[in-house]
UniProtKB/TrEMBL annotation:
Protein name, as recorded: Uncharacterized protein LOC108744795
Segments traversing the membrane: 12-30
Keyword Transmembrane helix (UniProt): yes
Keywords per UniProt: Membrane, Transmembrane, Transmembrane helix
UniProt gene name: LOC108744795
Amino acid sequence: MRQFRIFHKRLILWVIFCFQVSLLLAYLFLNVDIISATSRTSKRVSFFTNNSFKYVPLKKNTYHTYKHRIYLKKQSSNSEFIDFNTSICFRNGTDIKLMLHKQNNDKWNCKCLPTFHGNNCGQPEIIWRALLNFRKSIKIKGPRKYKRNILFVVIVDKFLTTALEIMISELNSVVDLFILIEYSGEVFLKNQLNNGFLRQYHKEVLYLNIVNENDLFSKIQNSIGNLKQETLIAFINEK
């Protein structure tokens, strides 16, 4: 009876051992099948890659450089104003609906929207308040026959590229030329532009490589053929 019990225990242990071995072999064979199936399909479909996004290199540079001679566009300002017989009003600053209700009035005065001021409603509130705080009296002439040209100058490094793309996309409708600066010895931005960075804005981009900031405005003057004193220049230096 005792020998039967010992034999019975050994039999149970062997059964458990064989079951564990069979599970291990099944897992190994199943894992091999999964790996082989994955290797066959990975060549066809890949949802995730370790490579970061890369711009497609340009066959020819489409942005402007120091070698180019740029002429800023001369744009008429007529489309920005409305002629109401006796008054010429700035379109974006005038309450046009209110003006049209007063067609029978021979002496029309521009009726400004809440955030605009001036005789022709052409002064945004921030400009109007600045003029009020200015001690000397200023007589504003206008409207201008042609729009002012606006230049946006930025000294760029590799940490500013994302913010730069956002700024250009937001300001593209009002800025005539984006002047992107790198210091001598740095070519990160140049390589990015050559690889398609800001491709859709290249016609409005001037790339300059300078030794120091003292050379900046002389290079800008040499690059732009019709730069005028009245041109507005916004300068951002992140250094």
